[in-house]
Design brief:
By secondary structure, the protein is an alpha/beta fold. It is built from 11 helices and 14 strands. The strands form 2 sheets. A 7-stranded mixed beta sheet has the order 2-3-1-4-7-6-5. One of its GO terms (molecular function) is RNA binding.
């Protein structure tokens, strides 16, 4: 943000199993409307601690004797490559104690109640998959039999629509399309034999989604409990140029080590994704609070328990942010999109300050040192001369204005530190979609460059 604009317009800051915590009935606070803003004027002290979270209640999907244990499922939560360990840390913090990293995701276990809570509260996962079958398969016919032997009637039937997706790593199967057809046939054959009808196929908005994963010798079948990808929080309509997905933006904040109580600036903010994710994290707003999930359309869904989980999560939302957040972009259209996105996310204008400004004119919001986390333009978005001049001049701004701050930049340009004449203390491989990138971390020192 340009210094003059900020001084005149800055706002006051307001496959293995995790054990479940002992079950207890959830608290039932006043329900909070999904469209109610989550950053309100300062009527309460910013440092007041949030109410302690209540333990999760035991699911009642099946009737069982008093004291009986809830059924526990093996689950897999995929995420963008590079965020696996950050996702594990997040799952541990949410109480999934034996979560551990896997290929482009994390394994954990939970009961059905825990599955719903993971969908509601994970900022980094792309979806939550429940493992329902696993077996050795040598050909497509054995894959068909594995699908036919799985009790799909527990979760869906002919009254729901179905979609099947198949992926593989080093599988000897010749055609993934044919494997996909075999899984679908096995599911439909079982349901027709048991219930007299088969579900219709809907590849756009199905009620039930099944994922098949094949490796060299086996197949694993998963029930998708999320539906649309979890990065679709429901608030972003304006994406801008070269957008980050919401869970990747949240992952960058986690990888950067940003403490959710220090100032944060994004000097190339685009449509505001990093800052909006930071605001929602700082306010403890669950990322899934305003969107639907696939598990709501499955058999036996306990809507009352789901409402209790959301009400309990709403009760932990803070009334205001304990830090200042600001974003700048040279494109007025990007700033308009960022403000619109923030409004749709339920944030009031004092939650995040957005300004049309050149990154080379930015300066801190106040005397507190904080973090800069950003996704700057790179590659084909800049010509060679513009690229050289921008980074030389921005580096001078960083040296002059941001001593004591940390800078974290995601880029596919592996020469980026050299262009800034700064030595990164961390280089974290991460993927933005299919694009291999690095998240470079720099400790900024006032008045000097470090090579």
């Amino acid at each position: 943000m340009a210094r003059a604009a900020l001084e005149g317009g800055k706002q006051p800051a307001a496959a293995d199993e995790p054990r479940q915590a002992p079950d207890a009935p959830p608290r039932k606070p006043r329900p909070r409307r999904d469209d109610e803003p989550v950053a309100r004027p300062r009527e309460r002290h910013a440092g007041r601690p949030a109410p302690a979270p209540a333990p999760a209640a035991e699911p009642r999907a099946e009737r069982r004797p008093r004291g009986a244990q809830a059924e526990v499922f093996a689950m897999f939560a995929p995420c963008p490559q590079g965020l696996e360990h950050a996702l594990v840390d997040e799952l541990h913090a949410l109480g999934y104690d034996d979560a551990h990293p896997g290929r482009a995701g994390a394994h954990f276990t939970a009961d059905w109640n825990g599955m719903m809570r993971a969908n509601l509260e994970s900022r980094l996962a792309t979806r939550v998959l429940v493992r329902v079958a696993h077996g050795t398969v040598r050909d497509e016919d054995e894959l068909l039999e594995l699908a036919r032997a799985t009790p799909w009637e527990r979760w869906f039937g002919a009254e729901q629509t179905l979609r099947v997706d198949t992926s593989a790593v080093r599988s000897p199967m010749k055609s993934l399309q044919f494997c996909n057809l075999r899984v679908k046939d096995g599911i439909c054959d079982r349901l027709r034999e048991l219930e007299g009808e088969r579900p219709n196929i809907d590849t756009v908005r199905p009620d039930a989604r099944v994922h098949a994963f094949l490796d060299e010798t086996s197949a694993t079948l998963y029930l998708d409990t999320s539906g649309e990808s979890l990065f679709k929080r429901g608030w972003r309509l304006d994406k801008g140029e070269a957008p980050l997905r919401e869970n990747l933006a949240a992952g960058l904040l986690a990888l950067s080590g940003w403490p959710a109580d220090v100032p944060l600036i994004d000097p190339f903010c685009g449509s505001g994704t990093i800052l909006i994710e930071a605001a929602l994290k700082g306010l403890r707003v669950p990322p899934g609070i305003s969107r639907p999930f696939a598990f709501e359309r499955l058999r036996g869904h306990q809507d009352r328990r789901w409402r209790d989980l959301k009400d309990d999560a709403r009760a932990r939302i803070l009334p205001e942010l304990p830090m200042q957040l600001a974003g700048a972009d040279i494109d007025p259209r990007a700033i308009d999109a960022a403000r619109d996105n923030a409004h749709r996310a339920g944030l009031t204008e004092d939650a995040v300050y957005f300004e049309v400004a050149d990154a080379r004119d930015t300066c801190p919001l106040d005397e507190r040192a904080g973090w800069l986390v950003t996704n700057p333009p790179y590659g084909e978005r800049l010509d060679l001369e513009e690229d050289r001049q921008l980074w030389t001049e921005w580096a001078s701004t960083l040296k002059r204005e941001f001593g004591g701050w940390q800078l974290h930049v995601i880029t596919s340009d592996m020469e980026f530190p050299r262009k800034l004449r700064l030595d990164p203390f961390r280089r974290t491989p991460v993927y933005n979609g299919a694009l291999a990138c690095r998240l470079f971390g720099f400790q900024l020192v006032k008045g000097s460059f470090r090579r």
